[in-house]
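Following up on my earlier thread - several people asked me to post the actual chain instead of describing it. Fair enough. Here it is, all 186 residues.
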Amino acid sequence: MILRVLLGAIVVGVLVAGWLLLNSEQNGPAVPASGAATQNAGYSARGAVLIETASDGRPMYTLRAARIRQEPASEITTLDQVQMQFRDHSGNLWNGRADHGRVVDQASQVELTGGVVISGLAPGTRDPVQISSDRFDVDTHAEIVTTDDPVVLSWNGQLVHAVGLVAHLKEQQVTLKSDVHGRYVP
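Reply from S.P.:
Thanks for posting it. Predicted structure:
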């Protein structure tokens, strides 16, 4: 799984290096940069797609980003204009979007920040659900989504506001932590 992500990153790095080499030959010799940036070049790509697969080869999740950057010294990959897709244990597709993201801990943690919206079908129903917050942390291996920030759940015209959320995707269980307010209209 992680090997595929790293392999993809290496391929992107080689393509970017090739493109830079071709452009530098056309525009004259490149001027070497000074400082730490040359020691830890990392990689950067636009329109990037990262897919982590399970042992059976199926995608666990897919991350799409308008821009991706990684510096080897930090082992953290940052993403801009992020879209995330994953399937729950019922096979329902969930979509998330955020202004920014970070992939850490060898791709086992994805942090989504800035106008985060996650939507999908409520387990056991065909009812669309939307969960919004300014931040969500996704443990991709344990399949747990958490936030300590204010959160809004909406479905079938119903709204619930709370502070903090823990969603255990495997157990299909959502716990709202505190300050829960909502109104159910049948």
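The two ends are 45 Å apart (CA to CA). That should answer part of your original question.
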